[in-house]
Design a protein that fits this description.
The structure holds two protein chains of two kinds. By secondary structure, chain A is an alpha/beta fold. Chain A is built from 14 helices and eleven strands. Chain A has a five-stranded parallel β-sheet. Chain B is mainly alpha-helical. Chain B is rod-shaped and about 110 Å long. Classes of the chains: A alpha/beta, B mainly alpha.
Chain lengths: 341, 405
């Protein structure tokens, strides 16, 4: 069985797949370029958010105020052509303010209760300063993030596809905040840190933001194309050794496993969860496609490991007192996993 | 590239030619096979060098043990055993081929290929489109893969060990060469050794039955060598009696006494004797011992009564002092010798001029804690001296005639 030009069907399928992979890189590059045109100085954060979106994961952005977290979220929503909503978290924010509520609707001659959707019903939900919301309100996000559905008054309502939560939090200001519980932190695919831009970058930011208003981001891909990217990313091949490497990295963050690194034994109370390993592999798949490969390499896993694991590691009091952070533990875990190869 | 595969029919019935053939996979296997063979060869080389080093180390240990007199002559069997062990260990890796997955992992790391080969080997048998894409991608990488980028096996340690083992074992082998039997024949009535040799306490007395006699080695061999040199120097002394005339003391007894002492002194300076004798007298500042030859070399004015060569008198004087309590200074040597000679001449017994020094040396030897082998040797030599007539000098004595007492 051959095609009209003499090539086999399998050959055509292979070429089609290769073309799709190539298109993935182009689309990703186009989105990134469009976002970086507006959000200057955070290429790693931009790439991290896009990788998470390609795998259907949620992102927690951490940074001091004024670094462009909200701008990043809005720009990505515009570049992807997704419906976008924003939730500004405060201590008095209620779960129903996010998920929606049952309201009494009066129409001529009738009065009926109907479900009024909250801001969670959007493709891209921007939860600003999520740690200012009470645990009760934060918990309302749990089901939405994991199940992509909300249950109100006994009725389950599915959220639109794709569904992403991009939350931001301020790591400095602790007054009036409620640190996210581990269970909710674990729902985030990546935790990205946005640091202070360098001098030249800051000058660029000033030049771009203090002049005439910038044009809005143009839509590079539509929802269907984004769905295709997400599907393609999951087809990337992972070797058994790569799976094992990811598992070893995660186990090396636990203090009580044979694979534990010395730093983990000393400074970690709880290591990364299996969700962390999943994030490693899925993020590695997207990185592999971006690198022009069809298989996951160890380097891909190592590249996404900090973002995928740092919010899943709980340090001991001694570790925090010694100034050890989760990234150092992850670095030690990567080295340990490489030794155990 | 040619990929032929089966397109599943809707009804699931296989047709003729329903064979999945992935030429990409074959090409990849070919390249990885070359990598695997190269890895195997390097592993075999390293294993072989390790085995050889191990065999040499074993051989060296055995030779060293034998040289120290701690074992019988097992060189032959041990050499064969070590060689057999080395060969067996060298053959081991040949029996275990390098797996394709291992070759792929090594090539991935060497070429920084992002685990392309490893993944391709794993999914080589799969029919999924992405899996075949992986294989194709790996094949393309393999086409440009440089085999010289494969990591070299670190063999520095093995090579150093091999070199050191070769040198040491060769030196030990040559040192304890195969002519030991001939030397033993020359030993004649020297102490026989039962069982192990080398230990001073295990050297049997003369005339003991030779049961399980081993090759004379260690101390025994040194005694044999001393004996041989003794006979040679005796000839030299007899042929060149004028050498004694160069001595200011010009005293035959003194010369012979020094000769006796020189033999022992040379042995002493080789390190065999001092430990046994307890080295009762420190070497004077005017003497120097060459650590290489073991020959005591006197400096100017130290001792000129040297019938057999430089330094013998100095070292011999030490042994002589130790044995007979003779005064260490040359003048006293001369005075003692003159007294003995005058006394003997007065008695008309020329051969009796060594009697007193010999007797005193023998008495001193009896008081000392000397190993049996050395005691036997010294006693035997003293007897030889007593039986040997003094050398006749062709030249007139440089010393003025002494008045009769």
């Amino acid at each position: 069985m051959t095609a009209g030009d003499g090539r086999g069907v399998d050959e055509l399928a292979l070429e089609d797949l290769a073309t799709r992979c190539c298109r993935f890189r182009e689309s990703f590059g186009a989105i990134r370029a469009e976002v970086e045109r507006i959000v200057v100085g955070h290429p790693d954060a931009v790439e991290g958010v896009l990788i998470a979106l390609c795998t259907g994961g949620h992102v927690l952005l951490e940074g001091v105020p004024g670094l462009g977290k909200t701008l990043l979220v809005k720009t990505i929503a515009g570049a992807l052509g997704l419906s976008h909503s924003r939730v500004q978290c405060t201590p008095d924010l209620m779960p129903a303010d996010i998920t929606g509520t049952i309201a009494l609707v009066e129409s001529p001659g009738t009065r009926d209760f109907s479900f009024r959707r909250g801001p969670i019903f959007a493709n891209l939900v921007h939860v600003d300063e999520i740690n200012r919301a009470t645990p009760k309100t934060q918990a309302a996000l749990l089901e939405a993030m994991q199940e992509r559905a909300v249950t109100i008054a006994g009725d389950t309502h599915c959220l639109p596809e794709p569904f992403f939560v991009l939350a931001t939090q301020n790591p400095i200001e602790m007054e009036g905040t409620f640190p996210l519980p581990e269970a909710e932190l674990d729902r985030f695919f990546f935790k990205l840190r946005m640091g202070l831009p360098r001098l030249d970058t800051l000058v660029d930011i000033l030049r771009l933001t203090t002049g005439s208003p910038r044009p809005a981001p143009t839509c590079s891909v539509d929802v269907a194309q984004l769905g295709d990217l997400m599907t393609l990313a999951r087809t990337v091949v992972v070797a058994e050794d790569a799976y094992r490497r990811a598992a070893r990295i995660v186990r090396a963050t636990h203090p009580d496993t044979p694979e534990a690194s010395e730093l983990a034994k000393r400074a970690v109370r709880l290591g990364a969860s299996p969700r962390g390993a999943q994030a490693l592999v899925l993020g590695g798949k997207v990185k592999a496609l971006l690198a022009g490969r069809f298989n996951v390499a160890y380097a891909d896993l190592e590249a996404v490991a900090p973002a995928a694991l740092r919010h899943r590691i709980l340090l001991t009091f001694e570790g925090e007192a010694d100034g050890i952070d989760a990234d150092a533990v992850i670095l030690a875990a990567l080295e340990r996993a490489a030794e155990l190869r | 590239m040619r990929i032929t595969g089966v397109v599943p029919k809707a009804d699931g019935v296989a047709t003729d030619g329903d064979v999945f053939e992935n030429t990409d996979a074959r090409a990849l296997e070919k390249v990885l096979g070359r990598v695997a063979r190269r890895l195997w060869a390097r592993r075999a080389m390293r294993q072989g060098s390790r085995s050889a080093a191990l065999a040499l180390t074993l051989l060296t240990v055995v030779l060293l043990t034998h040289e120290l007199g701690l074992s019988r002559d097992l060189r032959g069997p041990v050499l064969l055993g070590a060689l057999a062990l080395g060969l067996w260990l060298a053959v081991l890796p040949a029996l275990r081929p390098v797996r394709l997955a291992r070759a792929a992992a090594v090539a991935d790391a060497a070429g920084e290929l992002g685990e392309r080969f490893t993944t391709a080997v794993e999914v080589m048998a799969e029919r999924g489109a992405m899996a075949r894409l992986v294989v194709r991608d790996a094949t393309r990488s393999a086409a440009v893969f440089d085999l010289t980028r494969l990591p070299k096996a670190p063999m520095a340690c093995e090579l150093w060990l091999l070199a050191a083992g070769t040198i040491v074992s060769t030196a030990l082998w040559l040192h304890g060469g195969p002519s030991e039997g001939g030397r033993r024949d020359r030993a004649g009535d020297l102490p026989a050794v039962v069982g192990r040799v080398g230990g001073p306490g295990e050297i049997r007395s003369s005339g003991a039955p030779e049961v399980g006699v081993a090759e004379p080695r260690g101390t025994l061999r040194e005694i044999l060598r001393l004996d041989r040199e003794l006979s040679e120097s005796r000839d030299v002394a007899a042929a060149t009696p004028a050498s004694a005339a160069t001595s200011p003391s010009n005293d035959a007894a003194s010369i012979d006494s020094a000769r006796v002492s020189a033999r022992a002194g040379r042995a002493s300076s080789r390190g065999d004797v001092p430990g046994d004798l307890g080295d009762p007298l420190p070497m004077s500042s005017s003497d120097s011992a060459s650590p290489m030859s073991g020959t005591a070399i006197p400096r100017e004015g130290a001792d000129t009564a040297q019938p057999g060569g430089p330094g013998r008198g100095a070292a011999g004087r030490r042994i002589g002092l130790a044995a007979g309590g003779v005064s260490p200074t040359r003048g006293e040597f001369a005075r003692d010798g003159a007294r003995d000679r005058d006394r003997d001449e007065a008695r008309g017994n020329r051969s009796g001029e060594e009697r007193e020094p010999l007797a005193s040396a023998r008495a001193g030897l009896a008081r000392m804690a000397v190993p049996p082998a050395l005691r036997h040797y010294v006693e035997r030599y003293l007897d030889e001296l007593r039986r040997t007539p003094p050398p006749i000098s062709d030249e007139p004595s440089a010393a003025p005639p002494r008045p009769a007492p």
